[in-house]
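Shipment paperwork, digital attachment
Item: protein structure file
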Amino acid sequence: MTMRDAIASFVQDGGTVALEGFTHLIPTAAGHEIIRQGRRDLTVVRMTADIVVDQMLAGGCVSRLVSSFVGNSAAGSLGELRRRIERADPEPLVYEEYSHYGMVCRYLAGAQRLPFYPLRSYGGSDLTGVNQGLRKVTSPYPGPDGEPEQVYVVPPLNPDVTIVHAQRADRSGNTQLWGLTGIQAEAVYAARKAIVVVEEVVDDEVVRSDPNRTLIPAHAVDAVVECPRGAHPSFAQGYYDRDNAFYRAWSHISKDPERLRNWLAEWVYGTRDHAEYTAKFGEEFWASLAVGEALSRPVNYGRRL
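Attachment content:
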């Protein structure tokens, strides 16, 4: 599908949308299309809420955020998010906070259709004081001392739609990614619908030649969108590097509400799609983010003749 059609089909006002990708393969282009289409009152789930979440907040799309980290990836702050949480400006943001592992456990519970997922790491944590969704249950098995044991649990996550970015997929949706793989596969399995955005759609033979790299199989995918450079300003391992200058600039852009509105007007609302967005940068800019080869050695999947 096109990005426009995929977002129109699967992202609805008031829905819960997971956008996952850790450090690289961040589905920025999908976030921009959600802004263009004017979606409202979304619950956004993203373990590492970063620039794309800040932009969606500024676009008026998000009323609730479920996350375990907020920040501009070691390059500064998120101005719109801070205004919403610190001053309810221009309106409040409901923020539901977990630890990273707590979010992983929520996705695992959602993917396995479990009622909850146990974890020990909240013992001694003050997160339980700010998140009423964290509960304790009595283990059906004795603890290390032989006595009944109370264990913290988190509820499952089952987004209406999960959107992830990856390096490549075939037309059926068998999706391959490498580098930092994060929680993308579990987030897809947990969702009711899933959109996979890829740098390129490849022939079936490419996927079949390296089956272990297929982390998300076709049966879990509802839409495949080919969108080169769709993770910018983050990077796609083996395709282009991280745009560090943009990350540094974003703190200054988002700190000033008027400057932020002007940026959205030019780069999101002012572009028809991500192809037009990337074209505005020019090929000289993209050449500056080009990556060299660091090839993985081939493996032999041969079997008995």
